[in-house]
């Protein structure tokens, strides 16, 4: 009993954090920074116990290892920044942020269980809970009236969940054993020619393509970023994609691999469509959050393309590219938090005009992040581009490489336009003074991008070793 409790301390810490926030709310605490500090404290406690007991579990339904620890540390890192910055937004809006902080901790709990589980039933339950949590996050919109589009999105999400459930129901009818990953993989291997079995696998895959925002679900991802408040949009740009990608890689390797010959061309189609729509969407929008969402779609398309080969080398490349792009997206959101005028956060491309004149630190993270996203040497994005090129050449996918390089130029055009506005146009707004914490996070993000390039202490090799545990 005591051993199980100790093994569950990372999850228990997050639950205690949620309860702590609730008690503070009942005690009528009125400072958003207090709620944020409490949430970050319990997040650090959870991360500490996760490192200490990284391979211990309280149930056979979970199998934590170095791979799951790697992704939990990464989402914990981004969550710490998201929680820290959100308090300033809520303070500016005269809001508490208690519900937001509690929902982020709940999301981390869901992601942790989804990473570690080897049961499709647990994965399904956590996915449903995650969608409820994200729906609550999107409901934290204090300045706008209810959007009629919410009803449409609700029914789409519900349909996706029902498809997931139908896939599970059919697969459960094919065995009397628990729905473990290995059991499902065996069913897919022995019944690979069965249409119902194939459709069940498709129904299991669709929810993750939907949540990631892969084409044809990119419009939903754009709305998540463009219609949500800044802290929620920040969550969808950083925490959600890296966490879901880790789950999706594991699902494909340990469950869907018997159908890789059938899934691979479909993944390629969705991937290249995401690259095309992502690059075009970046150039067609003026809202900075939506521009960022389309850039994310572009990179997720590349990641899905690399995953479609079902090879360890290209799958690891997809992870590394995902990490670099999320670091760049996080840098962009540091810019979004910084461009505030008279207490109002700005969100259009025109808001960047003259940014370098009185916000040099913000302009620095903007240019570093954009250069990383468009793959300019010697920044981390250039390393990502080299991984993409090497991975596609190794698979002799020259047509896919040509498409990616062409639309990379389209993406680069939009990035250079933003840099031009920040450095070469006259200031249109008087920005509020930058706070010290934001400047700290700006330098931290630049440092992280530099660490990926210069690789001190063999950080990249350590991450690679942790990642490849999935293949043992």
Would you give an account of this structure?
The chain is mainly alpha-helical and 472 residues long. It has a domain at 265-472. Helix content is 76%, strand content 1%. It contains 21 helices and 2 strands. The protein has a two-stranded antiparallel sheet with strand order 1-2. The protein is globular, with a radius of gyration of 22 Å. The protein starts with a helix and ends with a helix. The model has no long low-confidence stretch (mean pLDDT 90).
SSE map:
Blueprint: H1 2-7, H2 9-26, H3 32-52, H4 66-92, H5 98-116, H6 120-138, H7 149-173, H8 181-190, H9 195-212, H10 218-226, H11 230-237, H12 239-256, H13 260-284, H14 288-307, H15 312-338, E1 340-341, E2 344-345, H16 355-358, H17 360-373, H18 380-394, H19 398-424, H20 436-454, H21 459-468
Antiparallel strand pairs: 1-2
């Amino acid at each position: 009993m005591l051993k199980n409790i100790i093994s569950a301390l990372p999850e228990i810490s997050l639950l205690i954090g949620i309860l702590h926030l609730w008690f503070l709310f009942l005690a009528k605490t009125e400072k958003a920074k207090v709620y944020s500090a409490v949430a970050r404290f319990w997040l650090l406690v959870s991360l500490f116990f996760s490192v200490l007991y990284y391979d211990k579990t309280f149930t056979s339904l979970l199998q934590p290892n170095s791979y799951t620890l790697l992704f939990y540390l990464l989402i914990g890192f981004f969550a710490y920044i998201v929680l820290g910055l959100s308090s300033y937004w809520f303070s500016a809006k005269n809001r508490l942020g208690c519900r937001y902080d509690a929902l982020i901790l709940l999301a981390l709990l869901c992601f942790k269980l989804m990473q570690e589980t080897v049961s499709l039933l647990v994965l399904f339950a956590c996915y449903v809970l995650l969608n409820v949590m994200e729906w609550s996050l999107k409901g934290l919109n204090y300045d706008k009236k209810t959007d009629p589009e919410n009803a449409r999105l609700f029914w789409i999400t519900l349909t996706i969940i029902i498809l997931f459930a139908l896939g599970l129901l059919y697969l459960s009818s094919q065995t009397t054993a628990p729905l473990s990953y290995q059991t499902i993989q065996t069913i897919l291997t022995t019944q690979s020619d069965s249409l119902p079995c194939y459709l069940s696998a498709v129904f299991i895959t669709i929810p993750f393509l939907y949540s990631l925002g892969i084409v044809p679900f990119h419009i939903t991802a754009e709305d998540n970023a463009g219609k949500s408040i800044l802290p929620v949009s920040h969550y969808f740009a950083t925490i959600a994609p890296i966490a879901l990608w880790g789950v999706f890689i594991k699902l494909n390797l340990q469950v869907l691999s018997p159908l890789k010959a059938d899934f691979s061309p479909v993944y390629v189609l969705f991937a290249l469509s995401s690259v095309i729509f992502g690059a075009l969407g970046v150039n067609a929008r003026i809202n900075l959050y939506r521009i960022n969402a389309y850039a994310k779609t572009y990179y997720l398309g590349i990641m899905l393309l690399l995953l479609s080969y079902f090879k360890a080398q290209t799958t690891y490349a997809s992870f590394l590219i995902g990490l670099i792009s999320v670091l760049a997206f996080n840098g962009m959101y540091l810019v979004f938090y910084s461009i505030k005028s008279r207490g109002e956060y700005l969100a259009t491309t025109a808001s960047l005009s003259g940014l370098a004149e009185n916000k040099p630190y913000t302009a620095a993270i903007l240019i570093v992040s954009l250069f990383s996203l468009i793959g300019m040497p010697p920044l981390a994005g250039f390393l990502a581009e080299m991984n993409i090129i090497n991975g596609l050449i190794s698979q002799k996918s020259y047509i896919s490489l040509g498409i990616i390089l062409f639309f990379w130029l389209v993406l680069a055009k939009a990035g250079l336009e933003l840099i031009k506005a920040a450095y070469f146009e006259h200031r249109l707004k008087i920005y509020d003074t930058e706070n010290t914490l934001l400047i700290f996070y700006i330098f931290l993000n630049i440092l992280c991008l530099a660490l990926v390039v210069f690789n001190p202490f063999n950080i990249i090799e350590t991450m690679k070793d942790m990642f490849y545990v999935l293949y043992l």
